[in-house]
Amino acid sequence: xxxxxxxxxxxxxxxxxxxxxxxxxxxxxxxxxxxxxxxxxxxxxxxxxxxxxxxxxxxxxxxxxxxxxxxxxxxxxxxxxxxxxxxxxxxxxxxxxxxxxxxxxxxxxxxxxxxxxxxxxxxxxxxxxxxxxxxxxxxxxxxxxxxxxxxxxxxxxxxxxxxxxxxxxxxxxxxxxxxxxxxxxxxxxxxxxxxxxxxxxxxxxxxxxxxxxxxxxxxxxxxxxxxxxxxxxxxxxxxxxxxxxxxxxxxxxxxxxxxxxxxxxxxxxxxxxxxxxxxxxxxxxxxxxxxxxxxxxxxxxxxxxxxxxxxxxxxxxxxxxxxxxxxxxxxxxxxxxxxxxxxxxxxxxxxxxxxxxxxxxxxxxxxxxxxxxxxxxxxxxxxxxxxxxxxxxxxxxxxxxxx
Length: 403
Known about the structure:
The protein is an all-alpha fold. Helices cover 74% and strands 1% of the residues. The protein has helices spanning 2-5, 9-20, 26-43, 47-61, 67-86, 93-112, 117-133, 140-158, 164-183, 189-205, 208-225, 229-235, 247-267, 271-293, 318-337, 343-366, 375-398; strands at residues 300-301, 315-316. The protein is elongated.
């Protein structure tokens, strides 16, 4: 009986905090939680968790965090871990954790107000993603709690207007897509949650069509990752994890594009359509250039035009450049067909994709080869350069510099 009660100690303590929180002034509640965190730090092994809770309590006490951001992540972590342990004989541990985290954030919002379904769903998916990424780290709980708390604060402050039916549709579409992508062995667990996170934001804030543009990039990238895969393995330039892509790929290739979609959803300014398409066109063009170009003969370093071994950062081939153009044209054409982008921004997107891909090669040759950043960092900077290029060209056109 004693062993059964021990795991309940933390969830029950956090639940008690939820019940009394609305009755206590913020500064006093923050000070009380900091005091409890000090006790937790001294008496328990969860020292990183104690540090994160104390930090959140301080930020809440000075008015930086809403009460949901303080108590929500604590409830999600406590009850999620409890159910993950106690339901593992009946279902997958991740499902148990997701069930506990989801019920916890829903109960916290219901009791403390306001209720925001989008914020709650994003919080659960982000926590699942961080849990899968940081599984082997001692400070996983600290990073997860802080990350979720700050995300809740950010999205609460943005005050997105959305339709609950569209949100339900977004969850259904993204869960289904992520499941089949995982079963097809094109993404790993962290990639599943990253795809769901970005997908739900895109569908809810911008629309299904914007999500389908990003899905088209993913399908094209996954298909050409498998293109002549045996030859890539022989050359030693294949995508890691047997072609599966993780959260690094998702964030490096789609982060700034999703930001563009969110900004368009908030402002309805076409310049953010250019940002979105420039980023996604660059990601698509660069992926195809890499996956096809590596099999296209001897590459030449973009800075010196000297031949280099296959797979060298900054190496380009004629076939790769053609593949780059094909990818930019394909994704821009899809954006036009889906009515995401007007024709003139699609033309900008093609140019941005070509520009961003060659910026990727230039960054790889000048910076990545020196070990300053990795491949994901290079891709992130390249997609940003493609998006900024599209924005600058769009702005120049609209003020009459080019027309």
